[in-house]
Amino acid sequence: MSEKPIIFSTPMVQAILLDLKTQTRRVLNPQPFGRIRETPFSKSGLEDTYMHRIRFDNARKAAINEALANNDNDLAELISKFQFRDTRPKAASDMNDIDLASKLLGHTKEEITRKIYIRRGQEVTPFEPQNNE
Asked: 40, 46, 66, 112: least surrounded by Cβ within 10 Å?
């Protein structure tokens, strides 16, 4: 990220020197949190992991508060340890058809699905220790 100078007007410089202004900000263009595209996961066209994260956190807090209100501290502790995870890589990895997985995820190229979402390890045979008698 490059640094860009802020050009101050005379009244702004005077306010800074008189300690009337202690902080300056540059106006930035608003940045969207999500990506806008239509996928089977979001028929509205707005896929926003940040939004899902906020909803998850709010639901978890509500569940913890309900458990505490019912004097169930053990349940509240279990709920607090529950984590938000993206299950799309798991869904794509479990499919045997890369074309179908790409379509499910809304990708135009299978390469994106293969590189980013498929998380399948190499199949190996289980190790059997040899009996050295």
From this structure: 40
133, 120 Cβ separation under 8 angstroms = no
* Three-class DSSP category at 46: strand
Q: Give the SS3 label for residue 35.
A: strand
What values do phi and psi take at 37, rounded to 5? -170, 155
Measured distance CA(54)–CA(57) in Å, rounded = 5
| Cα–Cα distance measured from residue 71 to residue 67, given in angstroms and rounded to the nearest whole number | 6
Element (H, E) at 36: strand 35-36
Measured over the CA atoms of residue 110, residue 114, residue 116 and residue 117, the dihedral's sign is: positive
- Distance in angstroms (rounded) separating the CA atoms of residues 37 and 39: 6
Judged by phi (left if over 0) then psi (alpha if -120 to 50, else beta), residue 71 lies in left
